[in-house]
Amino acid sequence: MKVTLKNIKAVYKSFFLFFFINISFSQTLINYKLESRIKNLTNAKNFKGVISLENVLKISNEFGLDNDQIMELFRPYSKMYSKAPISNYNVGAICKGSTGNLYFGSNIEILNESLSFTLHAEQAAIINAWNNGETEIKHINVGGSPCGHCLQFLNELNNADSLVIVNPKGKNFRIRDLLTLAFGPKNLGVKTGLLAIQKNDLELENESQDKLTKRALLAAKNSYAPYSKSYSGIALITKESRVFYGSYAENAAFNPSVSPVESVLSSLNLSKVPFDQIVRAVLVEIKSSKVSQKSTFQSILKRVAPNAKLEIVYCINKK
Ligand code: THU
Ligand code: ZN
Q1: φ and ψ at 235, to 5 degrees?
Q2: Ligand 1 closest atom vs CA 121
């Protein structure tokens, strides 16, 4: 073959084509491998929206991903749990607790109920971490800046000052960058924060040996209500005899508070259990408290699980 300019160009062209096809082929293979690894984890029967530190490390080492990339990698999978029949706006968030585990959270709206019964993805992720025993959140990623409501919610965290808000589009944020001159627990004289261990000294008005009632009492003991002191918790059981629970989480600005009903429904949602699988639910709260979960508990659960047996059990604050 004669060495002409045309021939040289053709050789170069095919070399680059070969090179790029190879790169994109191996990239596709990596993406495929990653995707099937994540699907294996999230499709597991007992998956409840938690990725253990062990699995996080395995994936980040194998695929060479840093903390922020890992958090962004899982976000679309978290979004898949979103239930937004009113807005059709699906949101997924991922947060990382001090154990290194990752927690999913997605928004939940309930059709035909008021908009105030909306759980934001960031709230769901934090509640998921709390429900699984985390006492501090290091990072959260919702794809950019959380909304004002969520910033206010996040500002309630016991380590709000050090929380990193991962921003896949640019520089990471702190709450203070986005919520300047914030209103928070300190304004109301509260020194603890959300996720600090709570041991509310509660006991049932009438002693009970019922497992679900005891679990709801424990959820109330763990609840965070430094403003109203109206501690409450819910435990429920499904058709498959799976038990779920949720605690009340108050906020200094009141409205971003998360009711125990929202908390327990989010837990069910992240475990892929349809709400109509609820067979029986118990709310434990203090009878004479300033805030009651009774009407929300009854109206929301009647809406999503019309056949569920609902019970309200009262407790007293020994302190
Ligand atoms: N939403 C979130 O979950 N997080 C945000 O930060 C923005 C808003 C949800 C709430 C509601 O379900 C829907 O998006 C529309 O606002
Ligand atoms: Zn929000």
Answers
A1: -130, 145
A2: 3
pTM score above 0.85: yes
Residues lying with their CB under 5 A of ligand 2, a single-atom ion: 120, 147, 149-150
Q: Quick one: CA dihedral 141, 188, 183, 317, positive or negative? A: positive
Name which of 242, 233, 319, 228 is nearest 277 in CA terms: 242
Q: Nearest bound ligand to CA 165?
A: 1
Counting ligands in written order, which one lies closest to the CA of residue 255? Answer: 2
Q: How far is CA 139 from the centre of its chain?
A: 12
Fold that domain 50-188 belongs to in CATH: Cytidine Deaminase; domain 2 (3.40.140)
pLDDT value, residue 30: 79
* Residues 123-150: tens digit of each pLDDT: 999 999 999 999 999 999 999 999 999 9
For the chain, what percent of residues have pLDDT higher than 70?
93
CATH 3.40.140.10 segments of the chain = 50-188, 202-317
Give me the residues of the chain with pLDDT under 50, please. Answer: none
State how far the Cα of 105 lies from the Cα of 71, in Å rounded to an integer.
Answer: 12
What the block records as the tokens of 122 is: 């960031």
CATH number of 202-317: 3.40.140.10
Residue 27's pLDDT is 78
Distance from Cα 11 to the centre of ligand 1, integer Å: 54
| Ligand 1 atom at minimal distance to the Cα of residue 123 | 3
Please state the φ and ψ torsions of residue 102, each to the nearest 5 degrees. Answer: -105, 145
Residue 21's pLDDT is what? 63
